[in-house]
Write a structure and sequence with these properties.
Structural class: alpha/beta
CATH topology of the largest domain: Aldehyde Dehydrogenase, Chain A, domain 1
Largest sheet: 7 strands, mixed
Distance between the termini: 89 Å
Strand order of the largest sheet: 14-17-18-13-12-20-21
CATH superfamily of the largest domain: Aldehyde Dehydrogenase, Chain A, domain 1
CATH class of the largest domain: Alpha Beta
Bound molecules: NADP nicotinamide-adenine-dinucleotide phosphate
CATH architecture of the largest domain: 3-Layer(aba) Sandwich
């Protein structure tokens, strides 16, 4: 007997209901092209319905006390812990994220919601000494944080659960409602989140998930006047477009980078090589703070390159669902072609390919380049693929200048045993975060995180996102009368 495979059809999540869409599109595995599900391609009208629901749900969200919002988030944490393996499999399949890395993302997602559950109970204002100004005598002044209203959250494919958590977690903690538009390649994890939040007790309409083209559905969310804030994580190109269309809405933009690390002359290489290789190739380099550029002091350069290349060659490439896989497919075939073309361009301009530079299906083999000119795309643009360039520098000061010679400024790292050089680097590096004796790829989920230059505006990390997602209100009590 022949068996027909039934593809799962996912519906939209609007106003607490799973709603059939007018149109669906197949979702393919980036690794092997298998159809994973049928995904709704929301229309403008369906996007409007999601926004209507979020507007209406503001009343219910405003009624929730801080401890009730915290409890919903704690319930979500518990449900995620119970369903961690399922969540990891969803990410591994839709994003081709190696299963072990996907498990790591789920563990971090749980952390993020734990921080959000705590933060819901700690949203403080302050009292102000108004009598510091003549005329301010006998007036009590205090501030409080009020929810903005409807938050439009637009998210990328590379951390489909944790980057959504960085928006949904603080939005719930602060009593806002949300319209979430996840990346078209990774919608299943967001719908799974909606399922769990429904069980966790979130009021209907407080979270709405819609999928479809960013240019259509995303644009509708960005331009609707009823949405008070856009929190966007994605590419600088889309970020700039959103900023230009968002009008007076508050916008947080978490964008790309070509993150770099500096290696000083006094460093014990054996203690850092493994970490650097991990930072360069984790999730195929599709990480906004992936280690893309390495500037090594000339005294250690040859040894660094030799050890780095040897360690890179140990990486296992292949199926994301195989426990042994370190590096799997890029998110699309177009990205495979783009990354290899950029490697070729660097080679034509004098760079040397030490390993990789080839594909195996949709997997780009981990690629190490040396002597890369600063204007080669693999240096000055965001590669978002498994390539890293290693250049020699004469001094830490020269390295700082190279790092700063960039449109981007998300995070940077410096390995050194010299406290003066470390402190100087922390002053001089033009980035949102400086990691001393670590790679730029370091992140835990409560630290302030965000960039300067074309890496974006605003900060995430729950406490900081809470500030972005609330309006400060001042109350002055006059007791002169
Ligand atoms: P992307 O192409 O910019 O897409 C991000 C999101 O924006 C997707 O949901 C996309 O929808 C949507 N979108 C596309 N065009 C839009 C428009 N005109 N209006 C509104 N929304 C629109 O980014 P990606 O390829 O998914 O992710 C990779 C990028 O994200 C990299 O640049 C990376 O550095 C950055 N990133 C930054 C951080 C950070 O925290 N700084 C973290 C992770 C990733 P569709 O999928 O339907 O096109």
């Amino acid at each position: 007997m022949t068996q027909t495979r039934v593809t799962k059809r996912q519906n939209l999540f609007i106003n607490g209901e799973w709603k059939e869409a007018e149109e669906y599109t197949p979702l393919y595995s980036p690794y092997n092209g298998e159809i994973l599900a049928e995904i709704p391609k929301a229309s403008i009208q369906e996007a409007d319905e999601a926004i209507d629901a979020a507007v209406a749900a503001q009343t219910a969200m405003k009624k929730l006390a801080a401890h009730e919002r915290s409890e919903i988030l704690s319930n979500l944490v518990q449900l995620l812990e119970e369903n961690a393996e399922k969540a990891a499999e969803i990410i591994a399949k839709e994003a081709a994220k190696p299963l072990t890395t996907a498990r790591g993302e789920v563990a971090r997602t749980i952390q993020t919601y734990k921080f959000a559950a705590q933060e819901a109970n700690h949203i403080y204002g302050e009292t102000l000494p108004l009598d510091a100004a003549p005329g301010g005598e006998k007036r009590l002044a205090y501030t409080k944080h009020e929810p903005l209203g409807v938050i439009g959250a637009i998210t990328p494919f590379n951390f489909p659960m944790n980057l959504v958590a960085h928006k949904v977690g603080p939005a719930i903690a602060t009593g806002n409602t949300i319209v979430l538009k996840p990346a078209s390649q990774t919608p299943l994890s967001s719908y799974f989140l909606a399922e769990l939040l429904e069980k966790a007790g979130l009021p209907a309409g407080a979270l709405n998930v819609i999928t479809g083209s960013g240019r259509v559905v995303g644009d509708r969310i960005v331009t609707d006047d009823r949405v008070s804030m856009i929190t966007f994580t994605g590419s600088p190109e889309v970020g700039k477009e959103i900023r230009s269309k968002a009008g007076l809405k508050r916008t947080t933009l978490e964008l790309g980078s070509n993150a770099a690390v500096i290696v000083d002359e006094d460093v014990d290489l054996d203690r850092i090589i493994g970490r650097c290789v991990q930072g360069a190739f984790g999730f195929q380099g599709q990480v906004c703070i992936s280690l893309q550029r390495v500037y090594v002091h000339e005294k250690l350069y040859d040894a660094f390159v030799e050890k780095f290349v040897a360690k890179t060659k140990e990486l296992v490439t292949g199926d994301p669902l195989d426990e042994k896989t370190d590096v799997s497919a890029l998110i699309s075939e177009g990205d495979v072609d783009r990354v290899l073309a950029w490697v070729k361009e660097a080679e034509e301009n004098g760079a040397e390919v030490k390993t990789g530079g080839k594909r195996d299906g949709n997997v780009v083999l981990p690629t190490v380049l040396t002597n890369v000119p600063a204007d080669a795309k693999v240096s000055c643009q965001e590669v978002f693929g498994p390539t890293v360039m290693i250049n020699s520098v004469k001094s830490v000061d020269d390295a700082i200048a190279e790092v700063n010679n960039s449109r981007y400024g998300l995070q940077a790292g410096i390995y050194t045993n010299n406290i003066h050089k470390a402190m100087n680097a922390s002053d001089e590096l033009e980035v949102g975060g400086v990691m001393i004796n670590d790679i730029p790829t370091f992140r835990v989920d409560h630290m302030p995180y965000g960039g300067v230059k074309e890496s974006g505006t605003g900060r995430e990390g729950i406490k900081y996102a809470v500030e972005e997602m609330t309006e400060l209100k001042l109350v002055v009590v006059n007791h002169n009368i």
